[in-house]
């Protein structure tokens, strides 16, 4: 296979609208604040108030580094994470990562669908289960039958739903000087509950499914542009693409972390301040807000759950499908018709339908949300180690291996996640 392409003579392109320049990074960042993430952030804010806000400041640079690295792996190599693991690492490692991702994502889908159905019920009434089924079917139709080029535009506009959580803050009373002090100088606790909450926040913010999704979406973007090639084979395209990845990811992760900050802030200023410290679901958080912060805050919070759920479902199901397809060498692309990528779309449908079914059993997936976030935090550590190894591997990245500050912060993220997990396990064992 040819590895050195001669730069073709192409006309200078006009600058595209700013929204067109934003893509996988923004969608990934917004999908991070899904209903399960909302539940985790709400629980953190309700339980510990402003003293948990510092976690969002810490996760931002770490999240930017890790997601930038995953995006670079996809764009430079031309393959998603699972395919690269299969090509360069033992098969048991590949299957372990893929199975963990599939199980965690299916539980998240179950929780997200249940939360979305409950939110619709809170707003307009009607049978909750019927609302949940309708949302699942609607999401599947979009994923399976709408081409990627069109669908990605829908996902970009759905990110606006997250501004609902900024709006909620203006409907409640906030003591901003206290917020600023507690964000920078929090009252820390070394209890197992506090550290478990920190790991849950890290896990729902720096989640393995986001790594797989952003790398695969960079491959989708690559395949959707006939004049673009994997950067290790077309290094002259590296400067503009790596700059785009950097800005796209920084904006996307800032978006994600700002919204997470506002969700924690809202529940801290309302629920925690009124001694409501145990929140298990995002819809429960919305209901609890109503008598405290009023109808407007309640509606914004509830609508945000539905909007972010519609954004997150394809990311959860899609990242699992990309991982499975990469592991088993199936054709995979949201741009392909279902008949041309049957295995890929089968995983999307299966993960969504199993998640839907879980919500109708005696198993309470919503209660598992917090621990699902903890599991994500634990499993993220070895997957990040694998990513850092791949990003430094010349067989994967060619001459565009990750170096300098990006590599340093990537390993720092690995260390921070590892220390948090280790501290939690030690305190749980005591």
From TrEMBL:
An example molecular function term from Gene Ontology annotations: cadmium ion transmembrane transporter activity
Topology of this chain in the membrane: Multi-pass membrane protein
Name under which the protein is recorded: Divalent metal cation transporter
Residue ranges of the TM segments: 52-71, 92-111, 123-145, 157-176, 188-212, 251-272, 292-323, 344-363, 369-388, 408-429
Cellular component aspect of the GO annotation: plasma membrane
GO terms of biological process kind: iron ion transmembrane transport
Keyword Transport carried by entry: yes
Organism of derivation: Paraburkholderia tagetis
Pfam families: Nramp
């Amino acid at each position: 296979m040819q590895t050195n392409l001669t730069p073709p003579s192409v006309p200078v392109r006009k600058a595209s609208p700013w929204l067109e320049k934003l893509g996988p990074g923004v969608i990934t960042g917004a999908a991070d604040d899904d209903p399960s993430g909302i539940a985790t952030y709400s629980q953190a804010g309700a339980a510990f108030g402003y003293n948990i806000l510092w976690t969002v400041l810490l996760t931002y640079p770490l999240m930017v580094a890790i997601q930038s690295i995953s995006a670079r792996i996809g764009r430079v190599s031309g393959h998603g994470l699972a395919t690269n693991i299969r090509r360069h690492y033992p098969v048991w490692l590949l299957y372990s990562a893929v199975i963990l991702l599939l199980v965690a994502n299916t539980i998240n889908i179950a929780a997200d669908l249940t939360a979305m159905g409950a939110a619709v019920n809170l707003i307009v009434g009607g049978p909750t289960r019927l609302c949940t089924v309708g949302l699942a079917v609607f999401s599947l139709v979009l994923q399976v039958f709408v081409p990627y080029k069109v669908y990605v535009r829908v996902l970009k506009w759905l990110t606006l739903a997250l501004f609902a959580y900024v709006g909620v803050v203006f409907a409640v009373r906030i003591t901003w000087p206290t917020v600023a002090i507690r964000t920078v100088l929090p009252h820390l606790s070394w209890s197992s509950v506090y550290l478990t909450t920190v790991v849950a926040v890290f896990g729902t913010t720096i989640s393995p499914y986001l790594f797989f999704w952003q790398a695969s979406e960079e491959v989708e973007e690559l395949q959707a542009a006939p004049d673009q090639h994997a950067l290790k084979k077309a290094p002259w395209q590296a400067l503009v693409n790596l700059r785009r990845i950097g800005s796209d990811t920084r904006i996307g992760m800032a978006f994600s972390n700002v919204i997470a900050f506002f969700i924690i802030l809202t529940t801290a200023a309302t629920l925690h301040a009124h001694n409501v410290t145990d929140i298990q679901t995002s819809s429960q958080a919305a209901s609890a807000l109503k008598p405290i912060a009023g109808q407007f805050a309640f509606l914004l919070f509830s609508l945000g759950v539905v909007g972010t759920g519609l954004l997150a479902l394809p990311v959860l199901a899609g990242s699992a499908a990309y991982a499975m397809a990469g592991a088993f060498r199936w054709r995979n692309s949201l741009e392909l018709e279902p008949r041309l990528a049957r295995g890929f779309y089968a995983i999307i449908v299966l993960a969504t339908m199993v998640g839907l079914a879980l919500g109708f059993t005696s198993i309470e997936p919503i209660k598992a949300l917090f621990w699902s976030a903890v599991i994500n935090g634990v499993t993220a550590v070895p997957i990040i180690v694998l990513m850092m190894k791949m990003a430094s591997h010349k067989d994967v990245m060619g001459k565009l291996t990750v170096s300098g500050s990006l590599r340093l912060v990537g390993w720092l993220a690995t260390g921070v996640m590892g220390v948090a997990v280790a501290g939690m396990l030690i305190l749980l064992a005591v």
